[in-house]
Amino acid sequence: MRQFVKFCINGVVAVAIQYGVYLLLLPYMNALLANTIAYFVSFCYNFIVTSYWTFNSKPTMKRLAGFCGSHVVNYFVQQAVLAISLLLGVPERFAALVAMAVAVPVNFAILRIVYKKK
Hints:
Layout: H1 2-25, H2 31-54, H3 61-87, H4 92-115
């Protein structure tokens, strides 16, 4: 439970970073590209904090590979939900939040496997 709480706190900060960058870029490019760039910025922060704080582990190449793998899935879930939200008429400013909310449980489940101590 403690891990999940830390994951949620870290996730809120990562989402805030991603959403902030997304909003900054949105006037200059389409929503999917803005989300891609924002996702990468958030990803860099998220890997370090998830490793050291959330799962109390050192960031290793193996964990980076697993983290990248989970985030590839997460990224495509977000992009798909974002595209569908936009097609359904959700305003660009809010469509990214819908996409992020849908992807969080998927991401936690995968990362828990990646960081599980043997």
